[in-house]
Amino acid sequence: MSETPMFVFSMLCYLLAFVGFSANISLNREKLYKPSRGVAWAGVLAALVALGMRWYSAGHPPLSNMYESLVTLSTLIALSGLIFTARMPLPMLEAGTCVTSILMFGVASVFSSDVKPLIPALQSYWLHLHVSLAFVGEALFAIAFILSYLYCFQKIMAGSPDKPAFSGIIEKIACYLVVVGMPLAFIAGMSLLASHLSRHPSYEERWFGLVWGVIVPSVVTMILLMVLTWMYRGAVHKGVGKWLPDADSLDKLIYRAIALGYPLFTVGGLIFGMVWANKAWGRYWGWDPKETWALITFLVYSIYLHVRLARGWNGTWTACLSIAGFLVTMFTLFGVNFLISGLHSYIG
Predict the structure, then answer these.
(1) Higher confidence at residue 62 or residue 146?
(2) Is the pTM of this model over 0.85?
(3) 223 phi and psi angles, rounded to 5 deg
(4) Of 291, 265, 264, 267, which is closest to residue 277 (Cα–Cα)?
(5) Both ends of the chain: CA-CA distance in Å?
(6) How far from the centroid of its chain's Cα atoms is residue 204's Cα?
(7) φ, ψ at 199 (rounded to 5°)
(8) 205-330-65 Cα angle (round to 5)
(9) How far apart are alpha carbons 246 and 126 in whole angstroms?
(10) In angstroms, rounded to a whole number, what is the distance separating the alpha carbons of residues 174 and 214?
(11) Are 96 and 150 contacting, i.e. CB atoms less than 8 angstroms apart?
(12) What beta strand segments (E) does 107-240 contain?
């Protein structure tokens, strides 16, 4: 039995949960929060069942190619968002994790979902440890990314009255670049991916799914949100205090997500990766592109933790550093596979 219907059901649950969270926020309908959260949990459980079915039918964890990696990461992001908000309801974060999971699954649907036997290099229990721990860390980095985006949105809407004039203006410009630039960067990145896939014989037809299933809906949604925000900017300014915690609380949540994800990514992505590399290729480190970009990801988040803990930085600039870290993380997952050939190219 195929796991695809379960994944489709999961995505429908995420979509319905997103609508519920959005109505809870925009219409101030608090009664919608718990049902929306329940629907989101139903989506996560359905996705976990689908992953289990995939694991059973393939005989190995669903971590061996781009399709499996994306649907697994999509599920971990949705699950992490629900666990992260278990004690502190934050519907904007939960809505963001639903959207992120839907988009990630939409991108995954472009790639082949055929079950294939593992190549010899992947036939190791280190696959379970290396990739799964790294993905849990990356899911928490995604939570930090969404929180950082919301932090910048909150700073724009609420203003920065406590900052000197020049410093406040610079921070607001940075926040505007994040809030407007991230959706544009995502659309540009997906367009480049679609263009790349259109030239690949294996994706002559499938790449249209990326255009009509991800890029077009993203463009329409972005334009609609920008128009609505502009039309009802007064209500947005007044309501942002109800929708989001204050900037300091968001900053602490960003730090918490990164502090949880950092050791998991370090152990899974780097340390276990090096052990596995020695088992598979006879060396711990070889500056393969995937290894190099995993190291860059580690260094960006190391800088974040250093400047926050040792230098006392916080606020807009550490939020921007968190966003930069997640962009590097996504390039490590996507860009390296498609733009740079290396020993890890088989997972594309």
Answers:
(1) 146
(2) yes
(3) -60, -45
(4) 291
(5) 25
(6) 27
(7) -95, 0
(8) 55
(9) 42
(10) 27
(11) yes
(12) none
AA identity, residue 286: G
For residue 166, give both structure tokens: 């020049």
Which residue's entry shows tokens 């968001």?
250
Cα(48)–Cα(36) distance, rounded to whole angstroms?
18
Buried b (16+ CB within 10 A) or exposed e, 155-183: bbbeebeebeeeebeebbebbeebbeebb
Q: Up-side HSE of residue 40: CA atoms within 13 Å toward CB?
A: 33
In whole angstroms, what is the distance from residue 181 CA to residue 176 CA?
8
For residue range 296-320, list pLDDT tens digits in order.
999 999 999 999 999 888 889 999 9
- Residues 143 and 153: their CA atoms lie apart, in Å, by 15
The full DSSP string for 292-345 is: HHHHHHHHHHHHHHHHHHTS---THHHHHHHHHHHHHHHIIIIIHHHHS-STTG
Contact 17, 98 (CB under 8 A): yes
Tokens representing 146 are: 């969404």
Q: Are 89 and 20 in contact (CB under 8 A)?
A: no
Residue in the structure block whose two tokens are 């190995």: 60
Read off the tokens for 190. Answer: 């997906």
pLDDT in tens, 160-177: 555 666 677 888 899 999
| CA atoms of 21 and 38, how far apart (whole Å) | 11
